[in-house]
Design brief:
Layout (H helix, E strand, L loop, with lengths): L7 E3 L10 E7 L4 H14 L3 E7 L2 H10 L4 E4 L5 H5 L4 E15 L7 E2 L1 H9 L8 H6 L11 E5 L4 H13 L1 H6 L12 E3 L1 H11 L3 E6 H6 L6 E3 L5 E2 L3 H8 L24 E9 L1 E2 L2 H14 L17 H12 L2 E2 L2 E2 L5
Parallel strand pairs: 2-3, 2-4, 6-10, 7-8, 7-9, 13-14
Antiparallel strand pairs: 1-3, 4-12, 5-9, 5-12, 10-11, 14-15
Helix pairs in contact: 4-6
Length: 340
């Protein structure tokens, strides 16, 4: 079984070649399993380009790219208008689609929850697994009488932004008392750092419930909840249901969009694009050129490995839009020359 941990991904095992380029990045843990694979594969094919990525959470990625301490950031939650004013020239580039799975540590194999009941659990008003509200959604299922332990992120997190955006859309009480964002004041529960921190909390505590990126749920064999979507259908997080959440969504020019609680009977309601944050004009010609070429590879060849790591590839229309964005990138004030 593969285990994913929050760590620094350093693919530099030896001093770089004299003509080598080291690209540094930081941010989201949500896409870390895929990015680790991408950076490794690309580094093997292009030995002159290596990556060092710190998987520290979306909030940290936005902070570091804003401060200019890394060459790119990574986030699952689009930067706000206010954040963008402090980071002029930063662009969002969608890389893949991912699902936030609600995971639990109970003997129930096919647990079903509605958004309203899920919000009540994270608000601390539904505290036991055999609560009538949960029982009504799971008729004929033997539910344990044990207490529910809520696990949530302790750091600034794009995964949290996606999850709380969903809860705010389906629960007026959540919207009023907690709201949405990369970091919120949790009414109850235990905090873990990164997706792997929440994964560990859920695995270690019988009766626990938490939210993690789908890859962490699958690779750690955690049972996932089937959530009731806008159409009233209970849907589990899969590649197909994640892709369905993006169907019909109109992407704005800057790609900043939410696809939580999407329409469609097949749509999983807690899905999102994840983004790299890059400079429209990188002042370092070598790094800007190398990063643009990597992005071109990522939205083409890189998409092929996404399903094996539980991420949904970008739909073809989105790829076409991202191609346009990459062609507009500059490095050192000049247009980047993309290799065929």
């Amino acid at each position: 079984m593969r285990m994913f941990t929050v760590c620094t991904l350093s693919l530099v095992a030896a001093p770089l070649l004299a003509a080598g380029t080291l690209i540094t990045g930081a941010g989201a843990t949500f896409p870390y399993p895929l990015y680790a694979r991408w950076f490794s594969d690309y580094g093997k094919a292009r030995a002159e380009v290596q990556f060092n990525y710190q998987s520290i959470g979306s909030g940290g990625g936005i902070q570091q790219v804003t401060r200019g301490t890394v060459d790119f950031g990574a986030t699952d939650a689009p930067m706000t208008d206010d954040e963008l004013t402090r980071a002029p020239g930063i662009l969002h580039v969608p890389t893949v689609l991912g699902a936030v799975a609600v995971v639990h540590n109970t003997p129930v194999k096919d647990l079903r929850l509605s958004g309203a009941v899920l919000a009540s659990i994270f608000l601390g008003t539904v505290t036991r697994w055999n609560d009538p509200a949960i029982a009504a959604l799971n008729p004929g299922t033997a539910l344990p009488s044990s207490a529910i332990t809520v696990a949530h992120r302790a750091d600034g997190s794009g995964t949290t932004a996606i999850f709380t955006d969903y809860l705010a859309r389906v629960s007026p009480e959540w919207l009023k008392s907690v709201g949405r964002g990369k970091a919120v004041k949790w009414p109850t529960g235990l905090g873990g750092k990164g997706n792997d921190g929440v994964t560990a909390l859920v695995k270690q505590a019988p009766g626990a419930i938490g939210y993690v990126e789908l890859a962490y749920a699958n690779q750690n064999a955690l049972p996932v909840v089937a959530l009731q979507n806008r159409a009233g259908v209970f849907v589990r997080p899969t590649l197909a249901s994640t892709t369905a959440a993006a169907a019909g969504v109109t992407l704005p020019g800057d790609f900043r969009v939410s696809i939580t609680d999407a329409d469609g009977k097949d749509a999983y309601p807690v899905a999102a694009f994840t983004y790299l944050l890059i400079h429209a004009d990188n002042p370092d010609t070598a790094k800007g050129t190398a990063l643009a070429r990597f992005l071109w590879w990522a939205i083409h060849d890189g998409q092929k490995v996404a399903p094996s790591l539980d991420y949904a590839p970008l739909p073809a229309p989105v790829v076409a839009r991202v191609e346009e964005r990459i062609r507009q990138l500059k490095a050192g004030g000049k247009a980047v020359v993309l290799e065929p």
